[in-house]
Automatic annotation (TrEMBL):
Name of the molecule in the record: Histidine kinase
Lineage per the UniProt record: Bacteria, Bacillati, Bacillota, Clostridia, Lachnospirales
GO-annotated molecular function: phosphorelay sensor kinase activity
Sequence ranges assigned to domain HAMP in this UniProt record: 176-228
Keyword annotations: Coiled coil, Kinase, Membrane, Phosphoprotein, Transferase, Transmembrane, Transmembrane helix
Subcellular location: Membrane
Residue ranges that the Swiss-Prot or TrEMBL entry lists as coiled coil: 209-248
Transmembrane segments: 156-178
Pfam family, one: His_kinase
Coarse class of the protein's main subcellular location: membrane
GO-annotated cellular components: membrane
Superkingdom of origin organism: Bacteria
Source organism (scientific name): Candidatus Eisenbergiella pullistercoris
Length: 446
């Protein structure tokens, strides 16, 4: 045994020997054999099962595929030592291969090319030890490597799901914190711009938002107060103008009416004088009676007809009246007092000023919608574009006439009375050639 151990040590130049299916560690004294025969030689046989257990512990994978190749001082494999859990199929494949890719020139880890069918199932990582004259090989199952991308994919899916969930929650939080308050303010300002001065914002978000909401509510309340105050002042002014109108209706009209009556009586035309006095008395009865500022459309329409009858008799043959009867369904519509007669007076004046031998004055009615009723007064003759544009601009801007009884004044009174910008006066060129004025009123007040 002494000569055998000495011969093997001299051949492989290593202290680890593989003899008779066992591994032994050989120590000599002195440590080298170059000085001749050693004083003594000691050998210790290693427990292979213990080494196999250690190899199995080296593996990080469930199937414990690890082994060690012992090849002495040469690349050729002398023996193999497998882990305790290595399958017989894998052992047969390993023992049937020479592993041409083994390296003994480096002790760094490298990938080792495996023979078939091992290469279909494993990836091999090898590391050479010069002290042991052995190569440790770790077999990594390819199916385990594939589980890493699967785990990574699952991680990515979970991460993306959490990301979108958190993003949605954050977006919802931002919407509630920023977007919704801004939308509330935008809608409130839009409503305020549409004339809804009673709008208010409920404070419920942050301190800054609540401060803005409180200031907005104060502004809205203040605007509502100012508009109401201005509206009431305008109503009072219009009422005062109406009272003044009732007291100061053209005194020349009354003076001229008395002259006409006197002439009729002096010529013996008592019937005409009687009819004239009837219309004149009804005319002044309507002006002087104190029944409030609102009357029915029938009463206002009748007052206008009395005025037109008076003027028709005074200016006999100078204009032709074409008057449409007021529909029965519209007779009870409430209207402000003295809106039709002043219009008829203006229309007559424009018709007489046109220079025609017989001016045509036409009064018609129409229904614009379910809630709006229209009454039109027009004349023949001619009106210049400049004069028509001036009247239209005056009505559009709600201008005030100097006399207080003009079309602009009537237009303003109608808008204030019905609280609707769709109501009022509209001026256009008549198909007869003169001025066409349309009175737009609501069947019911808002």
């Amino acid at each position: 045994a002494y000569e055998l151990l000495q011969a093997c040590q001299e051949k492989y130049q290593t202290n680890l020997l593989y003899l008779d299916g066992a591994y032994s560690v050989v120590l000599t004294r002195p440590s080298t054999l170059r000085s001749g025969m050693p004083t003594y030689l000691a050998a210790a046989t290693l427990d292979i099962s213990h080494i196999q257990e250690q190899l199995a512990n080296f593996s990080a994978y469930n199937n414990k595929n690890a082994f060690m190749l012992y090849h002495g001082s040469h690349t050729n494999i002398v023996s193999c030592l497998y882990s305790s859990e290595m399958s017989s199929e894998d052992i047969s494949a390993i023992e049937g291969s020479s592993f041409p890719g083994l390296r003994t020139d480096t002790e760094d880890a490298y990938f080792l090319k495996l023979p078939q069918p091992l290469s279909d199932r494993y990836l091999a990582v090898a590391c050479y030890s010069s002290q042991l004259q052995s190569t440790f090989v770790q077999l990594i199952p390819l199916e385990n490597l594939r589980t890493i991308p699967n785990h990574f994919r699952n991680f990515i899916l979970i991460y993306l799901s959490l990301f979108f969930l958190v993003s949605f929650a954050f977006a919802l939080f931002l919407y509630r914190l920023v977007k919704k308050p801004v939308n509330d303010f935008r809608e409130s300002f839009r409503s305020l711009g549409d004339g809804n001065f009673g709008i208010s914002i409920i404070p419920s978000y942050s301190y800054e938002y609540n401060e803005l909401a409180e200031n907005f509510n104060k502004m809205s309340s203040r605007l509502e107060h100012l508009v109401r105050e201005n509206f009431e002042q305008t109503i009072h002014i219009q009422a005062a103008e109406l009272k003044q109108l009732q007291a100061q209706i053209n005194p020349h009209f009354l003076y001229n009416s008395f002259i006409f009556i006197s002439n009729m009586i002096s010529t013996g035309d008592c019937r005409t004088a009687e009819e004239f006095l009837y219309h004149l008395s009804k005319y002044y009865e309507y002006l002087t009676r104190n029944t409030g500022d609102t009357v029915s459309l029938k009463e206002e329409y009748t007052h206008m007809l009395n005025y037109l009858s008076i003027q028709d008799m005074r200016f006999e043959g100078m204009f032709d009246l074409k008057i449409e009867e007021l529909p029965e369904s519209s007779q009870t519509i409430p209207v402000p007092r003295l809106i039709l007669q002043p219009l008829a007076e203006n229309i007559i004046r424009h018709g007489l000023d046109s220079g025609e031998e017989e001016a045509v004055i036409r009064i018609t009615t129409s229904v614009r919608s379910q809630s709006l009723f229209c009454l039109s007064i027009e004349n023949s003759g001619h009106i210049t574009e400049e004069a028509l544009h001036r009247i239209q601009r005056l009505l559009k801007e709600n201008g005030q006439s100097e006399s207080g009884i003009g079309m602009a004044n009537i237009n303003t009174r109608l808008k204030l009375y019905y609280h609707d910008d769709a109501c009022g006066l509209e001026a256009a060129r008549s198909v007869l050639g003169g001025l066409h004025v349309t009175v737009v009123i609501r069947r019911e007040k808002l």
